[in-house]
Amino acid sequence: MKIYRYPSRDIWTDLVQRPVLEQKEISALIAEIFDEVDRNGDQALIGFNRKFDQAETETVIVAEAEIKDAENRINNDLKLAIQQAKENISKFHASQNPEIQKIETTKGVVCWRENRPVEKVGIYIPGGTAPLFSTVLMLAIPANLAGCKEIVLCTPPDKSGNINSAILYAAKLCGISKIFKTGGAQAIAAMTIGTESVPKVYKIFGPGNQFVVAAKEYAQQYGVAIDMPAGPSEVLVIADEQSIPEFCAADLLSQAEHGSDSQVVFLTTDLKVFNETIQAVEQQVKDLPRNEMASKALEKSSFVLIDSLEAAVEFSNLYAPEHLILAISELEKYIPMIKNAGSVFLGNYSCESAGDYASGTNHTLPTNAYARNYSGVSLDSFVKKITFQHLSKEGLQNLGKTIEIMAEAEGLLAHKNAVSIRLKK
Amino acid sequence: MKIYRYPSRDIWTDLVQRPVLEQKEISALIAEIFDEVDRNGDQALIGFNRKFDQAETETVIVAEAEIKDAENRINNDLKLAIQQAKENISKFHASQNPEIQKIETTKGVVCWRENRPVEKVGIYIPGGTAPLFSTVLMLAIPANLAGCKEIVLCTPPDKSGNINSAILYAAKLCGISKIFKTGGAQAIAAMTIGTESVPKVYKIFGPGNQFVVAAKEYAQQYGVAIDMPAGPSEVLVIADEQSIPEFCAADLLSQAEHGSDSQVVFLTTDLKVFNETIQAVEQQVKDLPRNEMASKALEKSSFVLIDSLEAAVEFSNLYAPEHLILAISELEKYIPMIKNAGSVFLGNYSCESAGDYASGTNHTLPTNAYARNYSGVSLDSFVKKITFQHLSKEGLQNLGKTIEIMAEAEGLLAHKNAVSIRLKK
């Protein structure tokens, strides 16, 4: 842990730096994988399953029977939990569909926007150390609410060639039937180019390791859109004198356990809370199964004693955290000061894991200071907002002169003529 | 012109292909320009003004006196036109700011979103054959409405080292005071990296030639966001028997005059309208000052006679046009069928130039089939939507079990513990 007591503002810019990631030069490998998938389709994916996931798979298609089996293998408590989460996520994301608002900007000139789904979307769910079925909910639910026609899900098989049951169950619950056993950069390549089995999509969502991240970047050259650029997960907690150190510690650790490259930042104005939170972190980390990862993440993490909550929020805006926990009492005062954050958790009972799983907000959020210029995933991420306009004859009469003058001043006389020819009629 | 009569659906996929662009390998040049701007700041920009724009500029900063001068140089009609356009664009974009909607997803669990401006944005306005002051309005107005604190505008100087007066006037009218004389890839580099004069920004907007487009792509490696990927401008017009051939022709030409790489597509069910529109295009193009560009664009453009309006809309969805003009009578029937388009113009009097300048909609739109997966610029492009959540003690009691079960099933026990430790208290 890096401990700072009242650091001078001059060094804040250093303090908000993310740990520098080892930038392996993997773009040549990504290009090779895309080429191989382009040439050999499903067979390439099956080969990569063998090579990268040590899995024998006859086909990349997940059969209906496998999905049914998965449902039987999930215990009832988990099913009910996933269902409650689905309900909340659905409620919150459904509220993001605005009513159409027609605006008459000039008499006879009416403009509005309508949402249309991105027709074909791809969802990538990593395998690896944690089977992230919660991410299935976070991406498939808004995709469905948006009305996306084709929703494709790719996830790597385990060594026995199977997909985690909870992932299959969550997918089924969300109405996804096109599930494929393929992971890493090759899964992204398959959804970008298309194979005999895997449909080509227009936009790809989902987290992943550095190969997946690089492949998503590469996929954009093919005209595919992606949800957002990615980096390691992070949380920043701001505490005052009434914050509860054990709670703060637990929240910091719930982020730190994600991976050794995760980062957590703790800011408080209260010396007692400062010291007790550090102690509680040291205490709690011992009992975690993912102790090693969390400890590594903590090494790069900062604990900062700061002179005011205003300063703490200012520091946070500079850091632009993916998750921001305001474990303070004067929420109304500080919420308007927040400028850059992915998702904000308010008060002593809004732990980050609530939003990670079940409160209803999306957990696909901008990391690595991208909260300065990107939003998290929402219903908006799955639609295009198309503008419409209708000018009546009167509308064009009212606006025509303005258009003609501007078009002429830009030297675009065909633009002007499109108005003039109508006004003359 | 390419003329197709009732083309079979098998060849539609070929027909909707965009002309293949000459892909010059310019990435090495872009990297050099970024390096040079990084090393030499303003001096690099001044050097590039000399080299690429044949302009001697002592400083890249546009002085207040220059802006005032510009105001005096603009005639009153143009001022009034720009003001009316500003009013309409403001009205429509202001309507895109949703009210905060707090959703109680579970008793005691409240979630909502709040907009926060992207704090620093950069606007690029090309010089070249047309001084696009209208694009200043389209980008500066929503940036201001969103509350962006720092709005930077870069545009190349003419050979005498000056900026077009209408660009300066529009910028001033929109409250932009940070204007810099720098164009091309070097302007994008300056806004990405920052120089002594040009502030570094978080998101860059605006059209440009292939160097600007490549530079915007490259800038993303620095963590900067961009409005959208870009390609040549395009329009698709769908006409029925009541459409007016001269109007259709004028609309097609107003797009074709943009550049020799523009593309226009005309679809109609009516043979008479088909023939007369082609004649009208041939007639009208002769009188255009930008005749040469428009003629080149027409060479690659398609005129399609098609058997039904349903088929025409289907074709359009496959093409995913930047601009779609529905010059037909049964609007209510066909609007819901539109799946992919940037901006849609309805009826015989909604010419594309209305939206290009003054109706209120934004003219920064997805081209090159990106209307399948991108929206045009709107107020949303200048904000992040931050999610907030507040769980009361009761809220966590209601949701806690669900979070614990899901976290445990994902093997993330620190996530579970953040709930358990609170429930125990």
Brief write-up:
With 425 residues, chain A is an alpha/beta fold.
Question: How would you describe what is shown here?
Answer:
- The structure is a homodimer of 425-residue chains.
- The first copy, chain A, has 425 residues and is of the alpha/beta class.
- Chain A has three domains: 2-21 and 232-360, Rossmann fold; 27-102 and 116-226, 3-Layer(aba) Sandwich (Rossmann fold), CATH 3.40.50.1980; 392-424, Single alpha-helices involved in coiled-coils or other helix-helix interfaces, CATH 1.20.5.
- Helix content of chain A is 45%, strand content 17%.
- Chain A has 16 helices and 14 strands.
- A six-stranded parallel beta sheet of chain A has the order 1-11-10-9-12-13, with helices on both faces. In chain A, strands 6-5-4-7-8 form a five-stranded parallel beta sheet, with helices on both faces.
- In chain A, helix 3 (64-73) crosses helix 6.
- The N and C termini of chain A lie far apart (76 Å).
- The relative contact order of chain A is 0.14.
- The model of chain A has no long low-confidence stretch (mean pLDDT 95).
- Chains A and B meet through helix 4, strand 2, strand 3, helix 9 and strand 13 of A and helix 4, strand 2, strand 3, helix 9 and strand 13 of B.
- Chains A, B: Catalyzes the sequential NAD-dependent oxidations of L-histidinol to L-histidinaldehyde and then to L-histidine.
- Chains A, B: It comes from Chryseobacterium phosphatilyticum.
- Chains A, B: It catalyses: L-histidinol + 2 NAD(+) + H2O = L-histidine + 2 NADH + 3 H(+).
- Chains A, B: InterPro entries: Ald_DH/histidinol_DH, Histidinol_DH_CS, Histidinol_DH_monofunct, Hstdl_DH.
